[in-house]
What we know:
By secondary structure, the protein is of the alpha/beta class.
Amino acid sequence: MRILxxxxxxxxxxxxxxxxxxxxxxxxxxxxxxxxxxxxxxLVVAGDVFHHLQPSAEALSLYYGALAELRRRTSLSKVVxxxxxxxxxxxxxxxxxxxxxxxVTVIGGYTSTDPIDRFVCVVPDRDRGxxxxxxxxxxxxxxxxxxxxxxxxxxxxxxxxxxxEFARLYTRLADACAAVANGAPxxxxxxxxxxxxxxxxxxxxxxxxxxxxxxxxxxxxRRFSYVALGHIHRAMDVHAGRVWYSxxxxxxxxxxARTPRVVLCVDIEPGAPPRVRPIEVPTFRRIVTFEGRIDxxxxxxxxxxxxxxxxxxxxxxxxxxxxxxxxxxxxHDTLAKLPEDRRPRLLHVxxxxxxxxxxxxxxxxxxxxxRPLAKMHPEEVFVRLHTVRHGSPPPxxxxxxxRELLVEDA
Length: 410
Ligand SMILES: [Mn+2]
């Protein structure tokens, strides 16, 4: 069986308010082509289909359009979509009946009262008949849903409980999958944080991730030949070629645009390790950052070239001495002089003071470049504000409650 593993589409996401819909449309069209040329049997989308809990009409249209095209233009047996922390589980589930008629299985969310069979998806073998593959399709699972309470618990206890509950859940899932597999291979999905990832690899911490960290790959029952994960925005092999993140196929942030984006083509045969082949996703729009003095940034804008039909999105970080007055103006003037087909789109201009080491001659006060708000973690902002207003950092209990709110808002 050949699986195409992708995740974290984040349809509807923006970059400095600029739409990414054109890039996503091109990605989805490329994906349909790739499914066809690679003769893929199962497409697995491991969460974060949408960026917002209430996706825009454009984002919904991209999603349904792609599912229809997959049905029309490819010979897929099955599409499996699970919800991520960005997705509204009930909204993802709402069209389940109609999507089921198109061989699309959607599992929006997890509740502990659901029978485990709800997460078992059987994929028929088109060539030989019978069962070809069984997917244990687990979406993002909030710790509350696992019955793990975090208030007043130590980090070590919380981590221990969460790990145990996730391992139990995946074992129950493997039992249920094996019961209907008739010897066919099993695979699973998940939308969570495993060890070995950097903080820069994802947008929002899950499962009190700041204190709990990631889970070891031994939470995934060994009977699963392959585990398709979402949430981490960088493609990576988490454990021994069996547990993988596919990363974002279209970069959500400027940082992600610096490394190639992929989808994973996975061949699974009974009794053999999976063969995983990353397929690079074309760059549909360049995301460029220029950093330096104004003349360097102007030169960068003038010399920028691209082969895509979509113009690059540019961020300019300009080093200034004193006032930044006129910086943005100067950059926009530069752009206005360029021919229209060589004009990138300037999304964001940031003026950054050159670091000042010398002391001020007048009051001998040292100036420091202050950290921009956008660079600070919400928790850091909360702690600083609390300290300013109340003269001390927030008590532990309040901090834990704040983290829970953050996860709910994620
Ligand atoms: Mn994501």
